[in-house]
Amino acid sequence: MLSERNKILVESIKRLLRRDATTHLRKIVNKTHAADLSVVFRSLSLSNQQKLFDMIKDTEQKGVLFSELDEDIFSNLIEGIDVDEIVEILEHMPTDDVADIIGQMPKEKSDTILEKMEKEGSEEVEGLLRYGDDTAGGIMVPDFIALKEDITAKEAIESLQKEHLDVEMPFYLYVVDDHGRLVGVSSLRQLVVVKPETPLKQFMTTDVFSVQTGMDQEEVAKIVARYDILAVPVVDGTNRLVGIVTVDDIIDIIREEATKDILKMAGAGEEFIETQSVFKSTRSRLPWLFASCVGGIIAFFIIGRFEGSLSKLAYLAAFIPVIMNMGGNVGTQSSSIVVRGLATGQLNVRDIWSVVFKELSVGFILGTVYGFLIGVVAQFRYDTGALALSVGLSVICSMSVAALLGSMVPMAFARINIDPAVASSPFVTTSVDIISVFFYFEIATTLLGI
Amino acid sequence: MLSERNKILVESIKRLLRRDATTHLRKIVNKTHAADLSVVFRSLSLSNQQKLFDMIKDTEQKGVLFSELDEDIFSNLIEGIDVDEIVEILEHMPTDDVADIIGQMPKEKSDTILEKMEKEGSEEVEGLLRYGDDTAGGIMVPDFIALKEDITAKEAIESLQKEHLDVEMPFYLYVVDDHGRLVGVSSLRQLVVVKPETPLKQFMTTDVFSVQTGMDQEEVAKIVARYDILAVPVVDGTNRLVGIVTVDDIIDIIREEATKDILKMAGAGEEFIETQSVFKSTRSRLPWLFASCVGGIIAFFIIGRFEGSLSKLAYLAAFIPVIMNMGGNVGTQSSSIVVRGLATGQLNVRDIWSVVFKELSVGFILGTVYGFLIGVVAQFRYDTGALALSVGLSVICSMSVAALLGSMVPMAFARINIDPAVASSPFVTTSVDIISVFFYFEIATTLLGI
Description:
2 copies of one chain form a homodimer. Chain A has helices at about 1-20, 20-30, 35-40, 45-55, 60-70, 70-80, 85-90, 95-105, 105-115, 120-130, 135-140, 155-165, 190-195, 200-205, 215-225, 245-265, 280-305, 305-310, 320-345, 350-380, 385-415, 420-450, and strands at about 145-150, 175, 180-185, 210, 230-235, 240-245. The first copy, chain A, is mainly alpha-helical. In chain A, helix 7 (about 85-90) packs across helix 9 (about 105-115) and helix 17 runs parallel beside helix 22 (about 420-450). Chains A and B meet through helix 1, helix 3, helix 13, helix 15 and helix 16 of A and helix 1, helix 3, helix 13, helix 15 and helix 16 of B.
């Protein structure tokens, strides 16, 4: 439904652009959420993008659009926008989004902009730029409510009504000591239930989750998802509260991380590349293919060793694809399950042996089922018992080994802190291919006596 | 770090259980977040699980534990708990979680429990049970703040202080008309900035996103993620406000959906099965393997047709694995990119031709690179120009066709509303295998004149 709505939107806007129906366009553009506009921009030429952009009246909406646009569309678009206008837009945006955007710009441009920004804002942005993009420090916002532990509930309510009206998400009230160190957390609800003169430190929750600025964003996302919280406070090395990470940014991270894992498992790079150039896309996909190419060449030398047997019984070759396929697919199943289980925390590296044993059992059962089936087909086609038996046994071996490697390799990689998503697939599929072919020819030549 | 902490927790608890150090255990159990306890429970025997469960003092914590436990652990655990205690725990839980849990129980048990629950609570739960598990109605909570459009800001603040203290997440104040129909939304912040006597309808935002009870949870998640909102109101067919879906449930959905997609692409079922039995795991993985088995058997009959050529030039067989592999892997890359792009909205079914053309270009370039490389190896090994050329050309064909099918099939499936994640992988890999083998033997027998 969402995509249906966007489709209609894109088509209406294109039609209005062709007709140059400015009044109508202006109305639509200002009524549409910037997140939807960013989708429309993907289908438009740069000049039409600029036209629509200039029609946006609300500076805040321009800001939201800035943070929603794809990286390449954004960098082309801002080429045509006056620096002063950019600065004005950035000053209406949340600091974490500004830092992301500034980080994408070429150095000279970002320096000019930071210089022109108001001092307070640019200092906050530069503060955030110090942290790695993918860390808690890089994704936090410095807008949060921090109250001193000594004030009363009444004073807290008063200060909220006066000072903190512009805070993005005012649901957690953090409590700090005189040095700005995080000591507790409270909520609007707590403030209104206690007696007005109670000091915060008497009723605040002291058991508060926090993360360090340097923590990886994936870890932060896991914590927020695990404990169902809406924001997590970020502290520096001395436990001083420096920002919060909010749940809306966590959603983006969880989706990004899932995308990365899917692409890495398929050996298709890390970033989503379909919106990038053919050249970039090709380059990011070359490496894994090289691993599988080397595997294929090794298989080729192994088969070459059995050339004599093959010239006697040429039909042996006909079973190579099915044996390789069955092994490869079970291996992919096992490694996908284990990689995803490790990523979501449903599997734990400690459980390596129980997981591997279970996968091996599954692989063996599946191997027996399909080994029997494929053996029957072989018997029906060539009517040679020894051949049917060789093929069936090879399928069992190949599928068992594949399930074993498919589960053990990601587990082992995770244990030595190598990302299982990126390392497992090339390694598993390549090894399974080589082992399958080797087993098959060894078994067949032995049983058939050639 | 999170898994590191859990590891230490599990080990301490196991050690204390062996030593029967009840006082110490009681302290740890009551200090630990239920989400962490649920992880600990995975490594414990049922009797130890019961022992720990009985040590939990806080009824609410028991409730959180109920909703965090894996399905099979939960259903074993509640066997040993008194119905009256279960009822008491459920009455302290959010209604959506209760509905989930009741839905998992055997019919007689859930009926007994619903009967024993207080009327108001059980009616809410039964209300939720009417909606499909995976719809907005099934995941919403019926606790929200709805204010009449005619009341003033002052009256709204007063009613918040009196009536709505128990609402889970009080950041959106929904505004309804006399029939309970959703007409707008406001916020605490708006209430305190306007003059106290202003009626809500004068300053509320009338442009409010809402979803229908029957909307698929994946769609709901997309909307919440797209517009960075913390909760989305759910309305029935007549636009009456019946509940809200909050962002913490959305996070779980986004992770689940990513897991489903990953497993479906690998043909490994839909649900994460590693915590389930070997039998269930085997059964969910059989179907896709059957598709690939049939593909392998077709490839086997194709190769069988070239038996004559193979007995003359047995080494032809040696190149089967590398040609199949290269095609299969490019196909997996393309379909993973497209399936994920469609799931996240980064690709749109409308763009089918530009995406397919781009993938085809990438496949052709990669094919040329690796075709050349593998051809050189063939030339080096067998010193037959026609063979090297056949192998190189086959790799190019196989990789181009694979990229073409890998991108076109998911796009086409999405267009006719078949889930691209579940349908693409078996179809693509099987077709690519058959086509690769066929091309290879056709090209080789023609060029080598056998």
